[in-house]
Amino acid sequence: MTCGWQSASSVAFTSPAIDHDCQRHKTSRPNRTTHQSIMDSASVSPETMQQLQNMSPQEKQQLNQFIQGENQKAQIQGVVHSLTDTCFRKCITGKITSGGLDRSEQPCMQNCVDRYMDANMTVIKHLEQMRSM
């Protein structure tokens, strides 16, 4: 989980659930680079640590970019999961009898997704305004 140290592009995938988890666990911004923090929390062999230390600055930058990309993918997957769960619980109230949505469920799901995205965009705009102050 990343809390408060996402790149500007990854803020677009921030959700209230992520922020809540960060506050609940009182996670703070790491002082070191992302890959160093991951290495600290993972079980890494001495050989792997030596290889990481021997990497060129360009290789370290590429590794950091890869890790940031993977973090962003995980955030997107988390938001999609949260959106799916929230809208499914709200809109699919009856017994599932076919492979598709019935007439009342389909507009409910579309409206739920639209409102979720609207709320997310409002939060993003607010965070960007706060960041520019």
Automatic annotation (TrEMBL):
Residues 30-59 have a biased composition (Polar residues). GO terms for cellular component: mitochondrial inner membrane. The keyword Glycoprotein does not apply. Residues 19-59 are annotated as: Disordered. The keyword Disulfide bond applies. It is found in: Mitochondrion inner membrane. One of its GO terms (biological process) is protein transport. InterPro entries: Tim10-like, Tim10-like_dom_sf. Residues 65-129 form the Tim10-like domain. Keywords: Chaperone, Disulfide bond, Membrane, Mitochondrion, Mitochondrion inner membrane, Protein transport, Translocation, Transport. It is a peripheral membrane protein. It holds the Pfam family zf-Tim10_DDP. Mitochondrial intermembrane chaperone that participates in the import and insertion of some multi-pass transmembrane proteins into the mitochondrial inner membrane. Also required for the transfer of beta-barrel precursors from the TOM complex to the sorting and assembly machinery (SAM complex) of the outer membrane. Acts as a chaperone-like protein that protects the hydrophobic precursors from aggregation and guide them through the mitochondrial intermembrane space. Heterohexamer. Belongs to the small Tim family. The twin CX3C motif contains 4 conserved Cys residues that form 2 disulfide bonds in the mitochondrial intermembrane space. This is Mitochondrial import inner membrane translocase subunit. It comes from Hortaea werneckii (Black yeast).
